[in-house]
Design goal:
The strands form two sheets. The protein has a four-stranded antiparallel β-sheet with strand order 1-6-5-4. Helix 1 runs antiparallel to helix 4, helix 2 packs antiparallel against helix 3 and helix 3 packs antiparallel against helix 4. With 197 residues, it is α+β, with helices and mostly antiparallel strands. It is built from five helices and six strands; from the N terminus they run E-H-H-E-E-E-H-H-H-E-E. The chain has one domain. The longest helix has 31 residues.
Amino acid sequence: MLKPVKELPPVYAPAGGVSIKKTSDIAQMLVWSIVLPLIVIAAALLIPRPDLSGGNFNFAAGNLFGWLGGILLVTVVMLVVHEGLHGLVFWLATGEAPRFEFKWYYASASPGEWYLPRRQFMLATLLPLVAITIIGLALLPFIGGQWRYLLILLVVFNASGAAGDLVVALRLAQLPPETLTRDSGAEVRFYAPPGGG
């Protein structure tokens, strides 16, 4: 079984990648940033609403700042948990602290100078989408009122934010099992041996 390495084996060659600086990659991410939330919303609508008090959705002017604060809180929690889950897998795989980067247009966790095997990188890439979606939807039957809407927002924001992760996972799934991946935050590069697979 392959292990993370800091030096690329000499027989490995570039095998593509995903970058937020590449227009075609951004276009795919934008599509998935719409499709994934729609799937999550459809799933959330199928989950029965609990019979709890305070279930009315109130847009009264007095609650506007409360809702805006709630949306801001959901966004911050989602970013921290999402990137934290990426970072947790990177840390467990390499034994070193991951690198976190937060900019106004994206947030990222990366394993630094490490090249990760396909299986470990796939786990790191998909864990936030899968875990937050499953846990969030599983909690919905037990949460009512405005907390329910904030939880749905958290799961929807996370799904939208995982669009780039899904693009990376779909590309990586097409490459040989021996593929190594290097994540620099804004760009993910794949490397494979000749004739791998």
